[in-house]
Amino acid sequence: MPKTIRILSLDGGGIRGLIPAVILGKLERLTGQPTASLFDLVAGTSTGGILALGLSRPGPDGRPLYAAEQMAELYEKEGSTIFSTSLWRKIRSVGSLTEERYPAHGIESVLQRFFGASRLKDACTDVLVPSYEIERRTPFFFRSAMARERADYDFPMWLAARATSAAPTYFEPVKVPAGKDYWALIDGGMFANNPAMCALVEARSRHPEATEFVVVSVGTGVRVKRFAVEEAQKWGAARWIRPVLDIVLDGSSATVDYQLRQLLESDYHRFQVSLQPGEDAMDDVRPQTLRKLRLQAEGLCRERTVELFTLADRLTTIGHSRQKLAA
Q1: Which of 13, 80, 245, 311 has the most beta carbons within 10 angstroms of its beta carbon?
Q2: Pairing label, strands 41-44, 126-133
Q3: pLDDT mean values, one per 10 residues, the chain (327 residues)
Q4: pTM, full prediction
């Protein structure tokens, strides 16, 4: 019987992480299992990294502590704390030109409370979380598999979540201790906002005996707003700051989506919604916007009901077959 590896990939996107959390909640209800039990590897960038780590955090009994719907509630209840700033900081930062838009204490307090003392090696399933090292100028990956093998790569989950979500202009870079040295890390979305291809490579490397790979990739919404060339031709560095970040994030995600469709065909499932102007900001935590994001995710679940049922059946069948072989 061929060995099949199940991979979940979660895009970055700030508060829009509510969308994949709701979709995964539907998948958990269909299967009756936590996300960490449905996948052999969960990869996530930025807000997707927070989700990946949160869904794999163990409770006292060793099973996943949080359900996907609890992760959705994290965005709805804690978003205003994560993206919180003072009027004086808004004035002083001059629209993020002189310093990051939000102080770190808001997001750090939420992550520390949410993840507690859990460490990367404790993850209930393998986790891959990208970040980027700005002093060494190289990608950096938080890997639970490596954390179990090397003590110097075993980091607190909250710190890994903080590093992968340190989006430039939103949050300051974070220094992650590494023995007598440190890693200077920012948001992994700078090179892998959609980490699905990174996850596939990681899975192939760790499971060379596998013959099939099922990849489920969940986005945080794609923007439909267009940039008029007549306006862009007049932009200087200040005007390009925000559009460039959006283009990098959306462009890299779309590229990976195309590549995996060609490579995996029916073994690849991508769930993504379109976002209208006014609901596509990464830091808009107004109740009406959060409501729109949840409704978008629920609408996608209704549109893709048949695919979700089929996917749920396949994921659980693979898991049951593996359990029988182990017995």
Answers
A1: 13
A2: parallel
A3: 87 96 98 97 98 97 96 95 64 50 92 97 97 97 96 96 94 93 95 96 94 96 82 78 76 91 95 89 93 96 96 91 66
A4: 0.91
